[in-house]
Specification:
DUF5062, single chain, about 60% helix, mainly alpha, DUF5062 domain-containing protein, globular, 4 helices, DUF5062_sf, Four Helix Bundle (Hemerythrin (Met), subunit A)
Length: about 90
């Protein structure tokens, strides 16, 4: 798994966009005490369910892998002129 140059910022953006996507799909918003790791796992599973992200193999399904998949997803989703894409 090759780490993206600005993966931490991409994951942060993926959480913002992913939460909005989940709400549009009818899911309740995350509560204030929901940890970032729980958000990552929830959004990853939703995106896999909607076939927007290819699932990790079950034996390699861990938090760093899920974050990486979210970073790749948002990197492909953002417009070409977005500052996060220009930084990579």
């Amino acid at each position: 798994m090759k780490k993206l140059k600005n993966e931490a910022q991409l994951v942060k953006k993926a959480l913002q966009v992913g939460e909005s996507y989940a709400q549009k799909r009818g899911y309740a918003a995350f509560s204030a005490d929901t940890s970032a790791n729980q958000k990552v796992e929830s959004l990853y599973r939703l995106l896999v369910l909607d076939k927007l992200v290819v699932a990790l193999p079950p034996d390699k399904e861990d938090l760093p892998g899920m974050k990486h998949k979210l970073a790749i997803w948002i990197d492909r989703t953002l417009p070409a002129d977005h500052p996060l894409k220009l930084a990579s």
